[in-house]
Predict the structure.
Amino acid sequence: MTRTLRILSLAAVTALATGCVTAEKYNALKMERDRISEQLGTAQGKLQDAQGRLDVLQRQLDAISGTTGSKEAMLLNLTQENADLRARLDELNKRYQDALNRPAGVSPLPEALSNELSEFARQNPDLVEFDAARGIVKFKSDVTFAVGDAELTPKAKEVINRFSAILRGPAASQYELLIAGHTDNQPVRNPMTIQKGHKDNWYLSSHRAIAVGAALVSDGVGANRIGVIGYADQHPIAPNSTAAGQAQNRRVEVLILPTTVKGAAVNSAPANTATPRPQPKLNKDGMPETSRPGMNK
């Protein structure tokens, strides 16, 4: 198009120089040149605009391609993490079942340690039970935790501190520990319990087991010795048809496994020691604690 403009301009000048064209024809040629020049400018503007949009689209395409790769990598990582967690969960479940299925009358723990734990339970009967045949220390949830919460009571912290001393002692210091949380079968309904993050019995049982594990670590028990799992209401030890049975089912068990710990100790004492704001003590069904003392959620 630029070449055309040059030809038109040259033709107009030549025509005027030779006197072979009228002023009317000259003006017509000039108008044609101006029109073509305007069209050329418009076309160039559209071309630049199209090029700019193409550049933007290319950058967006590159970004999408990069994001897709990142998402695929994240998906692969999450899939692997889920597989690892599932394997760890299966291992913890197997260890728990193995502990429950130990033959009666055959203590899995050394006699000195079993005697020490029996004396520990005898000194704290309101809070602790010890199953010597299976090597399980049971903390009663109704006196270990605040109502509808995973916050340890001051009394429970004192008792767990003494328990930690036993676990750090020469008779138990090399054994692995599995902490299992349990609830009764009553669903969580209290809004304040849910607001604290205990959305259902799975959450509540897990959070309470974690609280006991964190207290043990804070008292010097190696975190590399501890596994934590929550079973909700799936492993009752008494009928849930009575208040007494429900109370027995609300518990946190610490299984002292007849396996020695592997790996170096890890210092992972919890840093969060903030005292929560006082909350009205309601059970998980929204009833005041005093109206239904058998409930603890």
Notes: The helical segments are 2-18, 23-100, 111-123, 141-144, 154-168, 191-195, 201-218, 243-249. Residues 46 and 52 are 10 Å apart (CA to CA). DSSP finds eight helices and five strands in the chain.
